[in-house]
Design a protein that fits this description.
Elements lengths: L3 H15 L2 E6 L2 H8 L16 H11 L2 H13 L16 H17 L6 E9 L13 E10 L9 E7 L17 H18 L7 E7 L7 H12 L4 E7 L26 E6 L6 H16 L9 E4 L12 H5 L5 E6 L25 E3 L4 E3 L5 H20 L5 E8 L2 E7 L5 E7 L7 E6 L3 E5 L7 E9 L12 E4 L4 E2 L19 E2 L10 E8 L8 E7 L4 E7 L4 E8 L6 E9 L2 E10 L3
Parallel strand pairs: 4-5, 4-6, 6-9, 7-8
Antiparallel strand pairs: 1-2, 2-3, 3-5, 7-9, 10-11, 12-13, 13-16, 14-15, 14-17, 17-18, 18-19, 20-21, 21-24, 22-23, 22-25, 25-26
Helix pairs in contact: 3-10, 4-6, 4-10, 5-6, 6-10, 8-10
Length: about 600
């Protein structure tokens, strides 16, 4: 869903000097038409049409290859330096050779699959905003590499995007000639996108899938901003974006950006983190939950080594960013996939000995006795598992029906009634959750346009409800916007176009201070307040106090009808318990405990 207010605000920010991309253009008219949905699906029909979701999940599981991923990493390593400003003319060195090779791989996969995967460059110019890496007056021509797998219909023209950045750097972000292998960051993500293009090109999906390998992430997301800007300027709708950055490493370095790994030398090849914009009930978190649900229900029982998907609270690691933000900043639903352990925090300060953003971010050491590259840092089996999670989520949302809307009401103390619109789907899923980012229960409703469901919560529990449509093959759509309900207290309607009233105790007007999340927390936490009225808009604040009553911080709150969200950032190095109180007209009305967990 596009948020045009956010797009306008971001445009203003870019106009102030941060935005330096311009002249975005796709080098193939055919690819441009596919992206815009202006094509005839019959021109891209596969000789053998495979649309069964179970068959596609099984095909992804069987065909994604650690050996293929390793071959991509070796080839990307051979270009020596993929800095955004490195050589574009050499056939063996630099960013130009790398992007031509990526394009050739997309073309190879298309030739093997009825010539259905159509590839091109997205070219753009970039004028550096500072003297670093060249003159401020210079204008540089750059290119992302994209490949579109056309959907089987154009009624819903929404795209699904999987992307990664191919550019690399060493300790100097302007070194365009020295060794900058960038294997962990981010040859792993590039390899993942290439492997999905190879494996998924044989299948037919309802929506178009765009595979994108972008440039310029290390210089401020310039390649992904160019792609997002091109899509936004052409009013292209996007169902979801999966950004993959630092995706195949398993080793914990001396440093890592919080929330980080536990101790130096720890190995984690089973956990996978998904970061997204940290609104409590945003479409970003809904997409992360969808990814996890599809993996849990379709693949977790079939794999030999299950992946533990962690839905992270923040948008990214502390002080860090990634290409998903180029999309989410203008209202597109985007998430970042990142390995659990990171070998470094990219600081490159005095005494920095880790691998990230350093010449040491390499494939590893060649073992002459085994004729193999011997590395404990990047694990291609782990990378293959992360590729599978990505591909399965993309496949299911590209196969599934369109998102529906729903209305939810509290039917009794712990029973809800949900109504679906449109009401013509074979079945529906209803997801409920309370205190965490994961859904607690997902119900299936068949043969009905509404249902009465008992929720597993005690009295005075705030919880969230959303729904998805299911097609005849049992594939879900994305889930709707969440309703916020509370057992025995009030009903809060979040649908902006609904006439469903807010009910509740007139004494509190449906105002509720919810438990902060995450809790316990290390650095920052989100505090949410739901309200059934605008009457107290300029009369509220949050008081954060120690247990002995000392006021730590007072945060003004412009309380509006609906869900109000406030971020409290205390920083690291704090432990203990604080009290968060909602204060109206100078009087505390509700309080919750906040637990700090010292790093």
């Amino acid at each position: 869903m596009k948020n045009y207010l956010l797009a306008f605000l971001l445009t203003l920010a870019w106009a102030g000097g941060a935005y330096a991309q311009s002249g975005e253009a796709v080098t193939s008219n055919e690819v441009n038409k596919i992206i815009l949905g202006n094509y005839s699906p019959s021109n891209y029909q596969a000789a053998t049409v495979i649309t069964d979701p179970a068959a596609i999940s099984a095909g992804l599981l069987n065909d994604i290859s650690p050996d293929s991923l390793k071959a991509y990493l070796i080839m990307l390593n051979s270009f020596q330096n993929r800095n955004t400003f490195s050589d574009t003319n050499s056939s063996t060195f630099g960013i130009g050779a790398a992007r031509r090779w990526v394009l050739s791989k997309f073309q190879q996969y298309s030739a093997a699959n009825d010539d259905r995967l159509k590839s091109a460059y997205l070219t753009f110019t970039y004028s550096p905003s500072s003297a670093s890496c060249g003159s401020t007056s210079s204008i540089n021509k750059h290119a992302d590499v994209i490949a579109a797998l056309p959907g089987s219909q154009t009624t819903n023209k929404s795209l699904i995007i999987v992307e990664a950045h191919m550019d690399s750097r060493n300790s100097s972000n302007c070194d365009v000639t020295g060794s900058a292998p960038g294997i962990g960051d981010n040859a792993t993500g590039t390899a993942l996108v290439l492997e999905l293009a190879r494996v998924m090109s044989k299948y037919t999906f309802r929506n178009t899938i765009l595979f994108a390998v972008v440039t310029g992430e290390e210089q401020g997301l310039i390649g992904s901003k160019a792609l997002a800007n091109y899509l936004s300027a052409n009013n292209v709708l996007i169902k979801a974006v999966n950004n993959n950055d630092v995706s195949g490493g398993v080793f914990c370095g001396h440093t890592s950006s919080a929330p980080g790994c536990p101790f130096y030398g720890d190995i984690d090849s089973t956990d996978l983190r998904i970061f997204s914009r940290n609104d409590i009930n945003s479409p970003y978190k809904q997409w992360a939950r969808y990814i996890k649900l599809q993996y849990k229900e379709q693949l977790s029982s079939l794999v030999s080594v299950p992946t533990n998907i962690q839905i992270m609270e923040p948008e990214d690691r502390t002080g860090r960013g990634g290409d998903h933000q180029a999309f989410s900043n203008i209202g597109y639903t985007a998430v970042r996939f990142t390995q659990a352990n990171e070998d470094g925090n990219a600081s490159n300060g005095s005494g920095y000995s880790d691998r990230q953003h350093n010449v040491r971010d390499s494939l590893g050491h060649y073992n002459s006795s085994t004729n193999e590259i011997d590395s404990i840092y990047v694990n291609t089996n782990y990378l293959a598992r992360n590729t599978l999670v990505n591909g399965n989520s993309l496949a299911m949302v590209a196969l599934g029906p369109d998102t529906i809307s729903m209305m939810g009401t509290l039917w009794s103390a712990n029973t809800i009634k949900v109504m679906f619109s449109p009401a013509n789907s074979p079945a529906y899923r209803v997801a409920v959750r309370s205190a965490t980012n994961d859904w607690d229960t997902v119900y299936t409703v068949t043969g009905a346009s509404s249902a009465v469901l008992k929720v597993p919560y005690s009295s005075n529990t705030t919880f969230y409800v959303s729904a998805a449509a299911m097609d005849a093959n049992g594939t879900e759509s994305q889930f709707s916007t969440e309703y916020i309900l509370s057992t025995g207290l009030f009903v809060l309607d979040l649908q902006p176009d609904s006439t469903h009233p807010v009910a509740g105790d007139p004494g509190d007007q449906g105002i509720r201070l919810m438990p902060n999340r995450p809790n316990p927390f290390d650095e920052a936490t989100m505090i949410a307040i739901s309200s059934g009225t605008d009457a107290y808009a300029d009369r509220c604040c949050l008081n954060i106090s120690s247990l002995d009553g000392r006021l730590v911080e007072r945060i003004p709150v412009h309380l509006q009808k609906g869900l109000n969200q406030v971020v409290f950032n205390h920083g690291f190095g704090v432990s203990g318990v604080y009290i968060c109180s909602l204060v109206i007209d100078g009087l505390p009305v509700q309080s919750t405990k906040m637990i700090f967990r010292k790093q």
